[in-house]
Design brief:
The chain is 10% helix and 32% strand. By secondary structure, it is mostly beta strands. The protein folds into two domains: 224 residues, Jelly Rolls (Sandwich), CATH 2.60.120; 84 residues, no CATH class. It is elongated and about 65 Å long.
């Protein structure tokens, strides 16, 4: 069985803040400066170089999530399996000390072929800051879905989450330079969080794969977005206050359970009466264990909070 390719290659919530600023975004459209064909040289993007010349990645019209164009990685016949190919974004100027959120829509057509990755790095430090691997297989080996792994030092750590091939889902990476904390989300769910292990800044995004593609296999990417927030995205929300009434009480139990079960839904589910604005902040008031977002790991701390309720107007400790 093929080992994890990136082991050698990579060696070289909270909802979006209300005070976020979009620093860079592209849907790879003509209005963004892209045309159908090889990515190299388009709109400030460059490709991995080597011999033979990389004819991947390309801008394609075959499978955009929105608009009419997208970024695609497919098989290059004259490259050996394992040869890296990919595209580097332009250098993105992010204000010093700002929290940054990078998101991109990802659609990998099949499993059992190539590995794909989304990396963010610091060109000034010459270091990777975060690296997410979409594996060609899952830990069960059934090839129905593929594992999502995150690089943590020299190791690639399974997140416990999988991607389903043939569907666009959004990957998001949040970085807080004040705490050197990285938090990862897939399809709206927090999948991993850890401290930095190499780079401690971000100014470039890399989309790449290893040329193990099967015939007709593709890795499609769309709607890359980089935004920053200079203020606390959760200011004004109390941890545990699931109905946003300004108090943590037993009345928060039902809305909290609804949020845990329906976290990925953009609109409040039936029975959630606190309104859209409160629902949109579920990654804030639901983060009772302070790990960067709402997940099943917040259930026990929430229950403990209800056993000894905080003072009126105070969050769960």
């Amino acid at each position: 069985m093929r080992g994890l390719f990136w082991a050698t290659a990579a060696a070289a919530v909270a909802v979006a803040a209300s005070h976020a600023a979009i620093i860079y975004q592209t849907g790879f459209e003509t209005s963004d400066g892209f045309s159908v064909g090889v990515v190299e040289g388009q709109a400030g993007w460059t490709s991995i170089t080597g011999t033979p010349a990389r004819l991947q990645p390309v801008i394609s019209t075959a499978n955009p999530r929105t608009g009419s164009q997208h970024f695609r990685l497919a098989k290059q016949a004259n490259l050996t399996n394992g040869a890296l190919k990919g595209g580097f974004s332009p250098i993105i100027n992010i204000p010093a000390g700002a929290r940054v959120s990078i998101s991109v829509d990802v659609n990998i057509s099949v499993t059992d072929g190539a590995e794909y990755a989304v990396a963010v790095q610091s060109s000034t430090q010459g270091l990777l800051t975060a690296f997410v691997d979409f594996s060609f297989q899952d830990d069960d080996g059934d090839l129905i879905s593929g594992d999502i792994l995150v690089q943590d030092g020299v190791a690639f750590v399974p997140t416990g989450f999988e991607f389903v091939p043939g569907q666009y889902k959004t990957l998001r990476i949040d970085f807080d330079p004040a705490t050197n904390q990285l938090t990862y989300f897939y399809d709206g769910m927090q999948i991993f969080t850890h401290g930095t292990w190499s780079g401690t800044a971000i100014d470039q995004v890399v989309l790449l794969s290893d040329n193990f593609q099967l015939p007709n296999e593709t890795g499609d990417f769309d709607n890359l977005r980089v935004e920053t927030a200079t203020t606390d995205p959760c200011a004004g929300f109390l941890a545990g206050d699931a109905n946003c009434d300004g108090f943590v009480t037993n009345f928060d139990i039902d809305p909290f359970v609804l949020a845990v079960v329906n976290f990925a839904e953009p609109n409040p589910p039936a029975g959630y009466s606190a309104g859209q604005a409160c629902w949109d902040a579920r990654g804030c008031w639901g983060d009772v264990n302070r790990d960067g977002g709402l997940s099943n790991f917040d259930i026990d701390p929430f229950v403990a909070c209800l056993v000894v309720l905080p003072q009126p107007g105070q969050p769960c400790p």
